[in-house]
Amino acid sequence: MELIKVTDHYAPAVALIELNRPKELNALNPQLMGELRDSLVRLDKDDTVRAIIITGNERAFAAGADIKQMADKSAIDMLVLDQFSTWDQIRKVKKPIIAAVSGFALGGGCELAMMCDMIVASETAQFGQPEIKIGTIPGAGGTQRLTRAVGKAKAMELILTGRFISAQEAHFYGLAIKVVPVEMYLQEAVTLAKEIAAMSPIAVQLAKEAVNRSFETHLDEGLTLERKNFYLTFASQDQKEGMAAFVEKRKPEFKGK
Fold this sequence. Notes:
The chain is an alpha/beta fold. It has 2 domains: 4-197, 2-enoyl-CoA Hydratase, Chain A, domain 1; 201-248, Lyase 2-enoyl-coa Hydratase, Chain  A, domain 2 (Orthogonal Bundle). It has 11 helices and 10 strands. It has helices spanning 30-44, 75-81, 84-91, 108-115, 142-150, 152-161, 167-172, 185-197, 201-213, 219-233, 237-248; strands at 4-11, 14-19, 51-55, 60-62, 97-101, 104-106, 118-122, 126-128, 165-166, 178-180. The chain has a 6-stranded mixed beta sheet, sandwiched between helices. β2, α1 (30-44) and β3 (51-55) form a beta-alpha-beta unit. α5 (142-150) crosses α6 and α9 packs antiparallel against α10.
Protein backbone atom coordinates (compact mmCIF):
# COMPACT_ATOMS: atom_id res chain seq x y z
CA MET A 1 0.00 0.00 0.00
CA GLU A 2 1.51 3.31 -1.11
CA LEU A 3 -1.31 5.81 -0.70
CA ILE A 4 -2.97 4.55 2.46
CA LYS A 5 -1.78 3.31 5.85
CA VAL A 6 -3.58 0.41 7.50
CA THR A 7 -3.37 -0.55 11.16
CA ASP A 8 -5.33 -3.77 11.60
CA HIS A 9 -5.59 -3.48 15.39
CA TYR A 10 -5.36 0.21 16.17
CA ALA A 11 -7.63 -0.54 19.13
CA PRO A 12 -9.14 -3.85 20.27
CA ALA A 13 -11.15 -5.22 17.31
CA VAL A 14 -10.86 -1.83 15.53
CA ALA A 15 -8.91 -1.24 12.31
CA LEU A 16 -7.71 2.18 11.15
CA ILE A 17 -7.21 3.22 7.53
CA GLU A 18 -5.43 6.54 6.92
CA LEU A 19 -5.53 8.20 3.51
CA ASN A 20 -1.93 9.18 2.81
CA ARG A 21 -1.47 11.73 0.01
CA PRO A 22 -0.80 14.76 2.23
CA LYS A 23 0.72 16.96 -0.49
CA GLU A 24 -2.42 16.46 -2.62
CA LEU A 25 -4.76 16.89 0.39
CA ASN A 26 -5.60 13.18 0.01
CA ALA A 27 -7.16 13.67 -3.42
CA LEU A 28 -8.79 10.41 -4.49
CA ASN A 29 -7.15 8.88 -7.55
CA PRO A 30 -7.80 5.36 -8.90
CA GLN A 31 -4.74 3.91 -7.14
CA LEU A 32 -5.78 5.21 -3.73
CA MET A 33 -9.35 4.00 -4.19
CA GLY A 34 -8.11 0.60 -5.33
CA GLU A 35 -5.90 0.28 -2.26
CA LEU A 36 -8.77 1.39 -0.04
CA ARG A 37 -11.11 -1.16 -1.62
CA ASP A 38 -8.59 -3.99 -1.27
CA SER A 39 -7.95 -3.16 2.38
CA LEU A 40 -11.64 -2.92 3.23
CA VAL A 41 -12.43 -6.21 1.49
CA ARG A 42 -9.61 -7.91 3.44
CA LEU A 43 -10.67 -6.41 6.77
CA ASP A 44 -14.28 -7.38 6.09
CA LYS A 45 -13.14 -11.02 6.08
CA ASP A 46 -10.99 -10.72 9.22
CA ASP A 47 -12.89 -12.07 12.22
CA THR A 48 -10.59 -10.20 14.62
CA VAL A 49 -11.79 -6.85 13.25
CA ARG A 50 -15.31 -5.73 14.13
CA ALA A 51 -15.28 -2.02 13.20
CA ILE A 52 -13.27 0.11 10.77
CA ILE A 53 -12.30 3.78 10.83
CA ILE A 54 -11.30 5.76 7.72
CA THR A 55 -9.50 9.06 8.27
CA GLY A 56 -7.12 11.50 6.61
CA ASN A 57 -5.16 14.10 8.56
CA GLU A 58 -5.99 17.27 10.44
CA ARG A 59 -5.83 19.39 7.28
CA ALA A 60 -7.89 17.18 4.99
CA PHE A 61 -9.95 14.02 5.05
CA ALA A 62 -9.95 14.16 1.26
CA ALA A 63 -10.20 17.34 -0.80
CA GLY A 64 -11.91 15.67 -3.75
CA ALA A 65 -10.98 13.63 -6.79
CA ASP A 66 -7.67 14.08 -8.57
CA ILE A 67 -8.84 16.57 -11.22
CA LYS A 68 -5.53 16.46 -13.11
CA GLN A 69 -6.20 12.83 -13.99
CA MET A 70 -9.67 13.59 -15.35
CA ALA A 71 -9.38 16.99 -17.01
CA ASP A 72 -8.67 15.79 -20.54
CA LYS A 73 -10.80 12.63 -20.50
CA SER A 74 -13.70 12.08 -22.91
CA ALA A 75 -17.06 10.61 -21.95
CA ILE A 76 -15.97 7.29 -23.47
CA ASP A 77 -12.68 7.41 -21.55
CA MET A 78 -14.63 7.78 -18.31
CA LEU A 79 -17.03 5.01 -19.29
CA VAL A 80 -14.18 2.60 -20.04
CA LEU A 81 -12.26 3.62 -16.91
CA ASP A 82 -15.33 2.64 -14.85
CA GLN A 83 -13.85 4.17 -11.73
CA PHE A 84 -17.07 3.88 -9.77
CA SER A 85 -17.02 0.07 -9.82
CA THR A 86 -14.44 0.41 -7.02
CA TRP A 87 -16.90 2.51 -5.02
CA ASP A 88 -19.60 -0.13 -5.58
CA GLN A 89 -17.34 -2.77 -4.05
CA ILE A 90 -16.64 -0.56 -1.03
CA ARG A 91 -20.36 -0.01 -0.56
CA LYS A 92 -20.82 -3.77 -0.10
CA VAL A 93 -18.54 -3.98 2.96
CA LYS A 94 -20.62 -5.53 5.74
CA LYS A 95 -18.74 -4.28 8.78
CA PRO A 96 -19.49 -0.83 10.23
CA ILE A 97 -17.27 1.97 8.91
CA ILE A 98 -16.78 5.30 10.69
CA ALA A 99 -15.35 8.35 8.92
CA ALA A 100 -13.16 10.50 11.18
CA VAL A 101 -13.12 13.84 9.36
CA SER A 102 -10.96 16.89 9.93
CA GLY A 103 -10.40 19.71 7.47
CA PHE A 104 -11.63 19.36 3.91
CA ALA A 105 -14.12 16.66 2.88
CA LEU A 106 -15.00 17.92 -0.57
CA GLY A 107 -16.33 16.35 -3.75
CA GLY A 108 -15.25 12.73 -3.75
CA GLY A 109 -13.99 13.19 -0.20
CA CYS A 110 -17.46 14.18 0.95
CA GLU A 111 -18.91 11.28 -1.01
CA LEU A 112 -16.46 8.85 0.62
CA ALA A 113 -17.34 10.16 4.09
CA MET A 114 -21.06 9.79 3.33
CA MET A 115 -20.52 6.24 2.08
CA CYS A 116 -19.31 5.38 5.58
CA ASP A 117 -21.96 4.51 8.16
CA MET A 118 -21.25 7.42 10.52
CA ILE A 119 -19.20 10.63 10.44
CA VAL A 120 -17.34 12.04 13.44
CA ALA A 121 -16.10 15.55 12.62
CA SER A 122 -13.53 17.89 14.07
CA GLU A 123 -14.45 21.54 14.56
CA THR A 124 -12.42 22.43 11.45
CA ALA A 125 -14.19 19.99 9.12
CA GLN A 126 -15.75 21.41 5.97
CA PHE A 127 -18.07 19.43 3.72
CA GLY A 128 -19.13 20.22 0.17
CA GLN A 129 -19.86 19.08 -3.36
CA PRO A 130 -18.16 21.81 -5.43
CA GLU A 131 -18.19 19.92 -8.75
CA ILE A 132 -20.57 22.49 -10.24
CA LYS A 133 -17.72 25.04 -10.09
CA ILE A 134 -15.66 23.02 -12.56
CA GLY A 135 -18.51 22.30 -14.95
CA THR A 136 -19.63 18.88 -13.79
CA ILE A 137 -21.71 17.24 -11.05
CA PRO A 138 -21.09 14.68 -8.28
CA GLY A 139 -20.62 11.19 -9.69
CA ALA A 140 -19.87 8.95 -6.70
CA GLY A 141 -23.21 9.29 -4.93
CA GLY A 142 -23.21 12.94 -3.85
CA THR A 143 -26.59 13.85 -5.31
CA GLN A 144 -28.18 10.80 -3.70
CA ARG A 145 -26.53 10.47 -0.29
CA LEU A 146 -26.42 14.19 0.49
CA THR A 147 -30.12 14.50 -0.33
CA ARG A 148 -30.95 11.58 1.95
CA ALA A 149 -28.84 13.09 4.72
CA VAL A 150 -29.88 16.76 4.67
CA GLY A 151 -33.07 16.87 2.60
CA LYS A 152 -33.85 17.99 -0.94
CA ALA A 153 -33.74 21.78 -0.53
CA LYS A 154 -30.44 21.90 1.35
CA ALA A 155 -28.82 19.36 -0.94
CA MET A 156 -30.00 21.31 -3.96
CA GLU A 157 -28.49 24.51 -2.56
CA LEU A 158 -25.14 22.91 -1.78
CA ILE A 159 -24.83 21.02 -5.07
CA LEU A 160 -25.99 23.87 -7.32
CA THR A 161 -23.81 26.51 -5.64
CA GLY A 162 -20.85 24.37 -4.59
CA ARG A 163 -20.93 26.03 -1.17
CA PHE A 164 -19.11 24.38 1.73
CA ILE A 165 -20.74 23.79 5.09
CA SER A 166 -19.01 23.78 8.46
CA ALA A 167 -18.84 20.86 10.86
CA GLN A 168 -21.49 22.56 12.99
CA GLU A 169 -23.86 22.87 10.02
CA ALA A 170 -23.17 19.26 9.06
CA HIS A 171 -24.13 18.21 12.58
CA PHE A 172 -27.24 20.41 12.56
CA TYR A 173 -28.46 18.84 9.31
CA GLY A 174 -27.69 15.27 10.45
CA LEU A 175 -24.69 14.63 8.22
CA ALA A 176 -22.21 14.28 11.11
CA ILE A 177 -23.11 12.59 14.38
CA LYS A 178 -20.59 14.50 16.53
CA VAL A 179 -18.37 17.58 16.38
CA VAL A 180 -15.36 17.66 18.70
CA PRO A 181 -12.11 19.64 19.01
CA VAL A 182 -9.43 18.81 16.44
CA GLU A 183 -7.24 17.03 18.96
CA MET A 184 -10.11 14.68 19.84
CA TYR A 185 -11.78 13.74 16.57
CA LEU A 186 -9.85 10.52 15.94
CA GLN A 187 -10.08 9.38 19.54
CA GLU A 188 -13.82 10.10 19.52
CA ALA A 189 -14.16 7.86 16.44
CA VAL A 190 -12.11 5.16 18.18
CA THR A 191 -14.32 5.33 21.26
CA LEU A 192 -17.41 4.90 19.10
CA ALA A 193 -15.80 2.06 17.11
CA LYS A 194 -14.83 0.23 20.32
CA GLU A 195 -18.38 0.55 21.63
CA ILE A 196 -19.77 -0.97 18.42
CA ALA A 197 -17.04 -3.63 18.32
CA ALA A 198 -18.16 -4.83 21.76
CA MET A 199 -21.56 -5.80 20.34
CA SER A 200 -22.43 -9.02 18.52
CA PRO A 201 -20.79 -8.71 15.09
CA ILE A 202 -23.58 -10.80 13.59
CA ALA A 203 -26.27 -8.49 14.96
CA VAL A 204 -24.27 -5.42 13.89
CA GLN A 205 -23.98 -6.71 10.33
CA LEU A 206 -27.68 -7.54 10.09
CA ALA A 207 -28.67 -4.19 11.62
CA LYS A 208 -26.43 -2.28 9.20
CA GLU A 209 -28.02 -4.10 6.27
CA ALA A 210 -31.53 -3.31 7.51
CA VAL A 211 -30.82 0.40 8.11
CA ASN A 212 -29.20 0.81 4.69
CA ARG A 213 -32.12 -0.95 3.03
CA SER A 214 -34.51 1.62 4.50
CA PHE A 215 -33.16 4.12 1.97
CA GLU A 216 -33.56 1.75 -0.96
CA THR A 217 -36.97 0.13 -0.57
CA HIS A 218 -40.59 0.79 0.30
CA LEU A 219 -41.60 0.47 3.94
CA ASP A 220 -43.18 -2.97 3.49
CA GLU A 221 -40.02 -4.38 1.92
CA GLY A 222 -37.84 -2.80 4.60
CA LEU A 223 -39.99 -4.23 7.39
CA THR A 224 -39.84 -7.67 5.78
CA LEU A 225 -36.04 -7.55 5.68
CA GLU A 226 -35.85 -6.27 9.25
CA ARG A 227 -38.06 -9.11 10.44
CA LYS A 228 -36.02 -11.70 8.56
CA ASN A 229 -32.77 -10.37 10.02
CA PHE A 230 -34.33 -10.26 13.49
CA TYR A 231 -35.26 -13.93 13.20
CA LEU A 232 -31.76 -14.76 11.89
CA THR A 233 -30.14 -13.45 15.07
CA PHE A 234 -31.87 -16.27 16.95
CA ALA A 235 -29.70 -18.75 15.06
CA SER A 236 -26.59 -17.23 16.64
CA GLN A 237 -24.78 -18.10 19.85
CA ASP A 238 -24.41 -14.36 20.43
CA GLN A 239 -28.18 -13.96 20.80
CA LYS A 240 -28.30 -16.75 23.39
CA GLU A 241 -25.34 -15.23 25.23
CA GLY A 242 -26.76 -11.70 25.08
CA MET A 243 -30.17 -12.64 26.46
CA ALA A 244 -28.71 -14.98 29.08
CA ALA A 245 -26.37 -12.22 30.25
CA PHE A 246 -29.31 -9.82 30.50
CA VAL A 247 -31.30 -12.26 32.62
CA GLU A 248 -28.26 -13.06 34.77
CA LYS A 249 -27.36 -9.34 35.15
CA ARG A 250 -23.83 -9.67 33.75
CA LYS A 251 -21.88 -8.33 30.79
CA PRO A 252 -22.22 -10.49 27.64
CA GLU A 253 -19.19 -11.95 25.88
CA PHE A 254 -19.96 -11.99 22.16
CA LYS A 255 -17.97 -14.41 20.00
CA GLY A 256 -19.36 -13.60 16.58
CA LYS A 257 -20.95 -17.03 16.24
